[in-house]
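Batch manifest, entry 17 of 40.
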Amino acid sequence: MRTTLLRLLLVVAPLFAVSTASAADPSDVCDKRQALLQTLEQRYGEVEVGFGVTMDGAVLELATAKDGATWTLMRTMPSGTSCLVAAGQKWANRPEPVKQAEIVTPF
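Output type: structure tokens
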């Protein structure tokens, strides 16, 4: 937990001043989408690997380092503002699930 909060501070510090109180809440770490993605790529080698649209119209994006060493989840609101939601280490992709049609049964 401590490492994650420190990592969030290191990502955001060059972008804007963050008070001690707001640094504890990742949702307070907001900026333009491109600025956050650029910082994540430059500092951690993270690039967007997936996204999804929430029921309220926001877009959740996952960025990971190529080797999975670090990852960041970002939320972009319909207004265009992006905020960091969570960050961590040791991301691992699951293999694609087998589709029902691909399963061969002996019967």
